[in-house]
Amino acid sequence: MSEIQIKFNRQGASEDFRINIDHKDFFGPIPSEVKINNLTNIKEFNLPFNDMIIEYYDGALTDQITKAHNNISYIPSGIINNHKTIALYHYTSKENFSNIISSKELWASKIGSMNDYSEIEYTRDSFLTQISNILRERKNENSRDIISRVRAIFDDKICKNIYSISFSKRANLLSQWNRYGGESGVSLGFNLLLLKEACIRDKNKNLILIEYDSKIQASILKKIAIKFLANYKHSFTDNEFSEYFLNNFKKDLDKLVCSFKQGGFREEEEVRLIIEVEEKDNNLLKSNIGKEYYRFNYNKVFRESQKLDFDFEYIFSAPNENSQKRLKEIWKVLSESKMKFLSIIASEIPYKWH
Q1: For a Cys-Cys bond, which of 88, 99, 246, 293 suits 107, CB 3.0-4.6 Å?
Q2: Residue 328 confidence (pLDDT)
Q3: Is residue 256 within 8 Å of 123, Cβ to Cβ?
Q4: Structural domain for 252, as ranges
Q5: Distance between terminal CA atoms of the chain?
């Protein structure tokens, strides 16, 4: 396993992204890089999508047990811009994959309605525990009232307009296939440059690494609790308390709710695209069952930035007994939307679905 450090900068701020590249995600011979002599950078992005220009080959994996087609890969007609930049992977079902490609959008879910339903309560309760511990040490007689006030405003105000799209550093995790899409699932590799560009263009978008270590979480929340209690006054009216809390701590707590998850989710190695949404944003929508989403048009960022030649370089399909058929189904969806890619790769995890 190798480790690559990437700096993410926006408006003077910087954040370290340490992305673990685990080559066990890649089963079989896939093109790790493209080296063709005497080719210039022809700006692949600008070439039209047609069969005269786009060629593909079937990659075959041969081992001691079986021979299987395990990838469909693009033959480039020039040097690929920013090839091998780190990708973050979005797992989804067969149906949602088709919608993602045809609409050229990802739908961000509202924080609190994702797979860890208790994530807001998780960070809230950890924060209240830190406040309670400090008050107990100080033998503060007003601890119950303080805890009650913080709990109420946390539930009412924290992460009420935050939406999130989940990605993983890992392209081919069995737990993710089980959770998102089953044997027809797809893992889409979004180039980190594209996601960074989305954040640069919109100050309300940010990439956040998930922290799973409860000791680190507690240490961070303890510092905020100490700062909160340092200037807290029991004489605060409700309005004064609300103003004090929201002006000084809401921004940090919004981010920490999005950043903290229980250790049981650690193997996901999750990175989130966080979007702070205004109430009347045109990209907001409701599903038929009343769930709220935010539409993120990744293709618009791709087209306008022109830093990449492909929306996706690597796309993985879930473990499937007929991997060749599944690869061609994915290829068909991409081709019908005239969306170029570098490689579609079949997961060779030996797993049978029941």
Answers
A1: 293
A2: 87
A3: yes
A4: 2-346
A5: 32
351 domain-assigned: no
* pTM > 0.90: yes or no: no
Give SS3 for 143: helix
Q: What residues of the chain score a pLDDT lower than 70?
A: 1-69, 75-85, 112-117
Spell out where 11-100 has E strands: 13-21, 55-62, 67-75, 87-92
What is the spatial distance between Cα 293 and Cα 295, in angstroms, rounded to a whole number? 7
At 13-29, the pLDDT tens digits run: 334 433 334 444 444 33
Sign for the pseudo-dihedral over CA of 144, 149, 152, 155: negative
35 located within any domain: yes
CA-nearest of 341, 126, 138 to 215 is: 126
225-231 long-range contacts, CB within 8 A, separation 24+: 225/127, 225/130, 225/131, 225/134, 226/134, 228/131, 228/150, 229/131, 229/134, 229/135, 229/146
How many beta carbons lie within 10 A of that of residue 304, not counting itself?
10
**Beta strand pairing status for 341-346 and 312-317?**
parallel
- Among 262, 55, 269, 229, residue whose Cα is nearest residue 130: 229
Beta-carbon neighbour count of residue 136 at 10 Å? 10
Q: Which two tokens stand for residue 49?
A: 């999508």
Cα 161 from Cα 100, distance rounded (Å): 23
354 in a structural domain: no
Q: Which two tokens stand for residue 94?
A: 């067969």
Burial 327-340 (b: 16+ CB within 10 A, else e): bbbbeebbbebebb
Number of domains in the chain: 1
Please report which helix (H) or strand (E) contains residue 110, including its range: strand 106-110
